[in-house]
Specification:
With 476 residues, this protein is of the alpha/beta class. The longest helix has 21 residues, at 92-112. A hairpin with a 7-residue loop joins β15 and β16 (359-360). It has helices at residues 37-54, 59-75, 77-88, 92-112, 151-162, 176-187, 203-212, 225-235, 260-272, 292-304, 324-340, 373-376, 392-400, 415-424, 463-466, and strands at 4-6, 9-11, 16-21, 24-33, 119-122, 128-136, 139-143, 166-170, 196-198, 218-222, 241-245, 250-254, 282-288, 343-346, 350-351, 359-360, 363-366, 383-389, 404-405, 407-411, 429-432, 448-449, 452-453, 467-475. The protein has two domains: 4-246 and 451-475, Aldehyde Dehydrogenase, Chain A, domain 1, CATH 3.40.605; 250-432, Aldehyde Dehydrogenase, Chain A, domain 2 (3-Layer(aba) Sandwich), CATH 3.40.309. The strands form seven sheets. It has a seven-stranded mixed beta sheet, with helices on both faces. Strands 9-8-7-10-11-23 form a six-stranded mixed beta sheet, sandwiched between helices.
Length: 476
Amino acid sequence: MKQNYIAGQWIRSDFARNNVNPSDTSDIIGQYAQGDEQQTTEAIEAAVAAFPAWSVSGIQMRSDALDKVGSELLSRSTELGNLLAREEGKTLPEAIGEVTRAGQIFRYFAGEALRQAGERMSSIRPGIEVDITREPVGVIGIITPWNFPIAIPAWKIAPALCYGNCVVFKPADLVPGSAWALAEIISRAGFPPGVFNLVMGPGTRVGQTLINHHAVNAISFTGSTSTGARVIAGAAPRLAKLQLEMGGKNPLVILDDADIRTAVDCATQGAYYSTGQRCTASSRFIVQKGILPAFVNALRERIELLQVDDARKQGTNIGPVVDEAQLNVDLEYIAVGKNEGASLVYGGQRVQRSTQGFFLTPALFTEAEPDMRICKEEIFGPVACVLAADNYEHALSLANNTAYGLTAGICTASLKHATHFKRQAAAGMVMVNVPTAGVDYHAPFGGRKGSSYGSREQGRYAVEFFTTVKTAYTAS
């Protein structure tokens, strides 16, 4: 059994969970510890004890340890990518790419550890100087989802440690393997005991303890909007600092002047790759009427060629849905779409392969209307719908007609419309002639409305959440 990591020690648990391969449910990857309230509390106490020394530790020590983690991730990207694909269902090339990204994130923050700077200014009072510095927040509870089981933990853990915080990490229950592998690498990188802690287990015990505990100064969470609301309800009253990344119902606008090949590439990659299990996935294609028939025909021809199979099999374009519960959600939404009057022009069927897995063909709906549930609610699967737009202004209005605001895309040859869309799209990230899913590790990540709450993640903007500003006055 793979154990939890608390105060620099691997700690057994009374309970364990099987890690099941969604491409082949007969394949048990391993057994992983299920922590409880007591172990979570012990991890928090270990982080509290480690914080005073770590918060003032040398920046070279932090940089070296972070670089060591990043370098090992990069050197083992194929091995760890194979594990990731096996436990989450992402295709092997995508999984290797995700591990590579995690390594790049740790190496980026190894550099940031050496670039921490303050500011000095003169006071309005003669003979007084003002120093502005940043200090670590304290103990950070990190709660991550199953869809990016190593990249999302990396982009939270790396900056937390870079800026002198201590971490208690709770990964998603469905994908403990990648999280444990990352924790094992971190355990050998040179961080003092208690600086980093891993507690695997259910959100009702581990996650809720992190949310409620008075010694957890901040929580960085990525997951569903409904769970995010519970995080706010539990942690905000005790004035914990919060950073939440939640759902998306992201639009991809396609204007009449768009290059059809570019539009189809953006739609296919954005909606269906990673089995559509991305908060940045394009789930609404808003297509100007002049190009609509050509776009739908070309997109259908493209997705008919996508191979749905074992995530690690050569030639697979789309792996399985992560588990049976999520597969049932996807199938229920497909039934809802048909019942609401949308036309299912391709896919949406569970299919059998040589292994027993959760395989679903990519679904494409046309004749959708904005008030349909498939156009309003996040499905989190390989399901997308087409809405017709009269003109650019109508398309923009449809794009912004959502409770979410993570990312929005447009395919067009018009500089005028591209420029206007970048300014007027009510989203935290905007893509022009590139897929909505796919962001750089050194650029800020986050959205608006129901998609995000708090400071941006990634790049130099991570400093806003993981530090607090101190202003000091000194008389000469």
